[in-house]
């Protein structure tokens, strides 16, 4: 895997960094010369990631607003943020509970807003232009069975992206979302191993395959880089054409 991005002397915070898209993003950023604070709940995986990449690990439960405030109360050194932490609790709309809905919204949407608040404040104080990327989903753009809570959280994340875009733009801070299809993290490989579930989903994707984590991480790096310097407020599908239908 090769990258042409140069993030020397730039610093980024990546949440959800211990696996999947978040981990791949940290790996690519570190390989591109960036200083990366990698935040997640899994202490063991964070330690392994730090040993492999040289990132700075940060144990953080993004569902806890007090923990976010404590960890990020006075941050001024970042040039950007990748909000990648997320959970999926899939259930039929008629089976949705208040508890599951609130839990998904807290992790996927509320944490993105609260963490962006701290990072953006620090960037503004330090007069550092930069980029924020929120990792959303194709489920925020189209309706999917059994995805009510998840879809609502990702649509909210896209709305957060747009709100941040217009408020932070005057400070030179760009904000975008990426909206991937099923991405083959270790958990997703297992979840989509049943042909009865997998094959119909693949038929809805014109490229007839799911995404690999690096195929989402690389567009994230593009949006963080100067190559995307005039792109802000977009929700970028990384879905093999799924949402084109």
Spatial ordering of strands, largest sheet: 3-2-1-4-5-6-7
Number of strands: 7
Q: What is the molecular shape?
A: globular
Order of helices and strands: EHEHEHEHEHEHHHE
Distance between the termini: 31 Å
CATH C-level: Alpha Beta
Determine the CATH superfamily.
NAD(P)-binding Rossmann-like Domain
Which percent band covers the strand fraction? Answer: 15-25%
Radius of gyration: 17 Å
Please summarize the sheet with the most strands. 7 strands, parallel
CATH A-level architecture: 3-Layer(aba) Sandwich
Poorly predicted runs are: none
Structural class: alpha/beta
Number of domains: 1
Mean pLDDT: 95
CATH topology: Rossmann fold
Question: Please, how many helices?
Answer: 8
Describe this structure in words.
The protein is 44% helix and 15% strand. The chain has 245 residues and is of the alpha/beta class. It has a single domain (11-185, 212-231), classed as Rossmann fold. Strands 3-2-1-4-5-6-7 form a seven-stranded parallel sheet, sandwiched between helices. It is globular. The two termini are 31 Å apart. The mean pLDDT is 95.
């Amino acid at each position: 895997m090769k990258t042409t991005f140069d993030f020397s002397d730039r610093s980024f915070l990546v949440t959800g960094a211990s696996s999947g898209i978040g981990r791949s993003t940290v790996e690519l950023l570190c390989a591109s010369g960036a200083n990366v604070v990698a935040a997640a709940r899994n202490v063991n995986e964070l330690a392994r990631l730090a040993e492999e990449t040289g990132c700075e690990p940060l144990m953080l439960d993004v569902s806890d607003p007090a923990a976010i405030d404590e960890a990020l109360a006075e941050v001024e050194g970042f040039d950007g943020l990748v909000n990648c932490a997320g959970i999926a609790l899939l259930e039929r709309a008629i089976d949705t509970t208040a508890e599951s809905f609130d839990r998904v919204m807290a992790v996927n949407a509320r944490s993105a807003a609260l963490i962006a608040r701290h990072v953006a404040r620090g960037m503004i104080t330090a007069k550092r232009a930069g980029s924020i990327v929120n990792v959303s989903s194709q489920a925020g753009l189209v309706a999917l069975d059994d995805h009510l809570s998840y879809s609502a959280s990702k649509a909210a994340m896209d709305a957060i992206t747009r709100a941040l875009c217009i408020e932070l733009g005057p400070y030179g801070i760009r904000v975008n979302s990426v909206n991937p299809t099923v991405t083959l993290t270790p958990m997703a490989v297992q979840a989509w191993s049943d042909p009865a579930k997998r094959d119909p989903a693949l038929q809805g994707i014109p490229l007839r395959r799911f995404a690999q984590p690096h195929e989402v991480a690389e567009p994230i790096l593009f949006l963080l880089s100067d190559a995307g310097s005039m792109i802000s407020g977009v929700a970028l599908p990384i879905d093999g054409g799924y949402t084109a239908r």
